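Subject: for your reference before the review

Hello V.,

The reviewers asked for a structural picture of the protein, and I figured it would be easier to keep everything in one thread rather than splitting it across files. Below is the amino acid sequence we used in the manuscript, unchanged from the supplementary table.
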Amino acid sequence: MGYTAIVDYGVGNLKSVANAMGYLGLETRIASRPEELELADSILLPGVGAFPDAADKLRRTGMDAAVLCQAEKKPVLGICLGMQLLLERGEEIRPCQGLGLIPGTVRRIETAYKLPHIGWNSLRFPNPSPLFAGVEEGSCVYFVHSYCAVPTDPATVIAQTDYGPDVVAAVQRGNVFGCQFHPEKSGDVGLRILKNFGAMNR
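And here is what came back from the structure prediction:
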């Protein structure tokens, strides 16, 4: 089993993700240059903060093109803002282009509940995915966000949660996956999800 490259483009808590993967015995390496992604067997794209800032930093470092290239041949997992960047467009602060690996837009959650959405919420699985193998319907994971993915194709939605309206919690298109929640902060359920992703390494 090979290693997972954790993309370092200046936004995201890389250490907590690396620690969770390491706890599972999965090898990771922090990657800050495009060429470092070529040697990895899978890619993890973290992220915290605002969509435009993160998208700009991805472009400035050249990691956007590198992720797009590698996504054609190896598994990619985006976490929180990293998941949002997988979509075509974000509407946070100003309209901004994403990576376009998942068709759709990132929009502010339309809810009467307080934003940001912070805390534990249960998952439902409208479409099957190997990312959630062994994870029971109703399992709880940890969220921190005010914006959510709105995919154009319902088939790409592999998990939802309830925060007033249904909110997309995870997406998949081919070997590209995204979790709006933080698996590295979601206890045994999150560890199972990360283990499932690590098992996809060729």
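For the response letter, the relevant points are probably these. The chain has one domain: 4-90+102-198. The mean pLDDT is 95.

Happy to draft the paragraph if you're swamped.

O.
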